[in-house]
Amino acid sequence: MEFFLSIFVGLLFAAGIYLLLHRDFVKLVIGIVIIGNATALFIFVAGRIVRQAGPFIKEDGSVPESFADPVPQALILTALVIGFGIQAFALLLFKKLYDVPKIHQVDDLKK
Amino acid sequence: MIVCIFTIVILSLAVPLLYKVFGSKTAYLLAIIPAVIFTWFLYQYLQFSPAFPLQESLTWNPYFNLNFSFYLDGLSLLFLLLISGIGAMIYVYAGYYMKGKAYYGRFFMILTLFMAAMLGLVLANNWLTVLVFWELTSITSFLLIGYEHEKKKARYAAWQGLLVTSFGGLALLAGLVLITIVTGEYTISELSNFSDTLQSSTLYLPILLCVALGAFTKSAQVPFHFWLPNAMAAPTPVSAFLHSATMVKAGIYFLARFSPIIGNTIEWQILLCATGGLTMLTGAIMAFKSDNLKKLLAYSTISALGIMVLSFGLGTEAAVYAGLAYIIAHALYKSTLFMLAGIIDKQAGTKKISELPRNLYKKMPAAFILVTLAALSFGGIAPFFGFVAKEMLMEMVLHAPFFSSILVIVMVLTGTFFVTLLLILAHSTFFKKKGKAGRNIIAGGTIFYLAPLVTALAGLYFGLFPDQLSELLSNAAATFANNIPEKHLALWHGWNMALALSILSIIAGLGLYWAKIAFNWKPKAGFLSLIYPSNIYQYLFNGVIKLGEWQTRKIQTGYLRYYAMFTLFTILLLAGFTFFYKAGIRINTSTIDVYLIDLILGIIALLALAYTLFSPSKIDSLLSLSIVGIAISIIFFTSGAPDLAITFFLIDTLTVTVFVLILHKLPKKIIPKTTIARYRDAFISLGIGLLITLILFSITYDPLTSRLKQFYAENSYNIAKGKNMVNVILVDFRVLDTFGEITVLAIGALGVFALVNYSKKNTIL
Amino acid sequence: MKSLILTITAKYILPVMMLFSVFLLMRGHHLPGGGFVGGLTAGAGFVLYAFANGVEVTLEKMWLRPVKIIALGLLIAFLSGLPGLITEASFFKAYWLPWEVFFLPKLGTPLLFDAGVYLVVWGIVMVIIFPNITED
Question: Residue B507 and residue B419: Cα distance in Å, rounded?
Fold first, then answer.
């Protein structure tokens, strides 16, 4: 599974960066979103995949034999919410910019 | 000692508040601090002088061997008394000088902080702490020099001082790191046990050069002397303090402190003597050529610092005593002279000798008397303490172990210039025959003269009774070597060679002054300015700025995409190089396992991704984005991360919601990429994607042995009473991190809030 | 874009979602859930309600403005660190109440902290999305 997921993460990054270099604001923000997702998945894969077994202690309090690593999950969980904040902020910023005359695409920022 | 330093630091922060309460009397109140320190340490010393060295220690960060360990021996005590004693006088003087000036509270806050840093510097024993205080003096003096920040000159001088001294600070850091590499010791007082190891080490020369560089920049030795005269832009009390007892003396203190550790080798002697000798002469000549009173004094300080470096470079018994005595003598006369230069400047309105009104002595008799008192000490005339110190210096060069004759000539020449300077200060300034009448000049308040009076009289007192200082100096000298004999200072040494040289220099000085008057030598920049190091500094300074501008123009085109592209391309190159060079491609074939459902999911996700990329419609690419998101959240779900799956799903939904809400206010059409941009961007993005995939292959190649995973598994229920390890990490084990994160979130929300509401009067949120 | 179906659905779904979000928060310590997820769910519920009835109406029905909810959440999260500071001289050290309430999870500062996270995230979702919902 790691093998395929690694390729998937690579493709996600490639797509995200391709969009990040776009002149269009919306595509740029989509790029940011994709890169955020890709990073989350990257950390997750780097922590190894354990199928079907979440990081939970058994009902009786004993440690299960196999379970997913909780550390990357904790990292990703907070990162996701912060990522949401950033994406929304970027989008709102661009919307405000659009309200300003003459800034319709990324290159107009130079003016 | 620790208590005392921390008290001052805290007090310094309270200064603006004190100013609110006490107004312009704050300075006199603050003068109590150094006065108390001075008295207390003097009392301690008189009571328990055999108890040296005193030590105190407070752990700061043991992991980095960082602690506030303070150490008081004879040398520290000498400097401590100088700093606090002169400091008290400076406060009294500054209280009058700064009255009614802007930023009064801020000035005294920085001054107090500066003094605390200086005291800390001479007391600290752990070199990391020393370095902290060292840099603190650099920064506070930067603020003090640039105090009149409305003036371009002041800002420039402050920058120059900071750049030069912090450059030296870096060199010093390197030197100290090297010392620790060789010895493994952080405590300076212990380092002298390692002096043999250090001096036979192959790293000795780099260490010596680095430490010397640090000391030389701080103590304004040639060729780093140029920042000091420019530092005159500071208010006069600061100049007086910087020059007499602090800042520039820090370098001298450091050389003295390290002389038993890395000193007294041939390299040390050559380096210090050559630099010191050159500085002595350069400073004296430049002072002679100056018309500006403060500049003249500044250059003479440089010259005096050269003398001190020379004496510590020689390192003989006579030299050590001479150097220490000269430190005291210089501190006393230089602070007096500076304070008086400030008084003249303030009352007569100019610092330039050529612009001063005629017969100034009639207007300011007190100033004249005090200048004469201090200048006599400066010129080394009996019975002032300057004379005692000068005798010892002459003694030192006469018995120098090498190049004695050259050193004698240099010393006599410097002495000659000093005598001339004495005459310029005491005669040219006050007895001008021509010039404006200067009717409205008044002498100034009595309290203005109080501080210089004390320092000037101290110079006279110690000149008459130099034996009072013998014990203090002997204690200080004991730092240099254990077996150094006690020495008794005396005003009168009998008819000897030193006295003869002294008299020679006085006669020559009189001659030189007469010649200057007779031939009416006007101060000119002269040939020295050609190779003047400040020009080199200027070239370097401008060069760096030009380089910065050039590369900014080249890289920062103003197009956001190109910034991103440059960054990404650099990442690709550097990370790619490191990856292939260090790791190489490794693929763990055992992880090529996949279920049919995963495969279908993957294909759907990739199709959606491709559609997101190339769809001409914004809303379509958005919807396909959400499909990608759902696919990812299913991956999380099937891979043992249900928490992530739910969160991701919700986030994905909300993101798309925000997008949709905003989209219909933006133009529908997408501005397409150009064809060249397509290929170029595809190249960069595929390159990075490939690199990431390879890195992940490499990471997952080795089986993971995570101690953290095990730790959380064992402890999350036993200690934290939770069965969901992810949640336990977030709200218990790493709760402070989570707290930080929600704070960031809240700040982000405030940003959005501000962005949305910036033009509205009533906010609804 | 008012739709009767949406309005009525939102009216009944909101309490359910709020209840569910609190349920997620409470079970978070042992099972999937927690403050982040709970807060997002609560936020989503209110966003839905605002879609149906407009932002003004939604805000009128709330006791606190979203920004204040964020502030309250931060405050609660911070306060949850204090018991540990007092009892163990260590900020954020978990402190558990000695008694148990029969249907609730074990009560202690981690749960309180999670409630703070819940409030912050909930408030943020509303702050970000509400300004974009405009009736036009």
Answer: 9
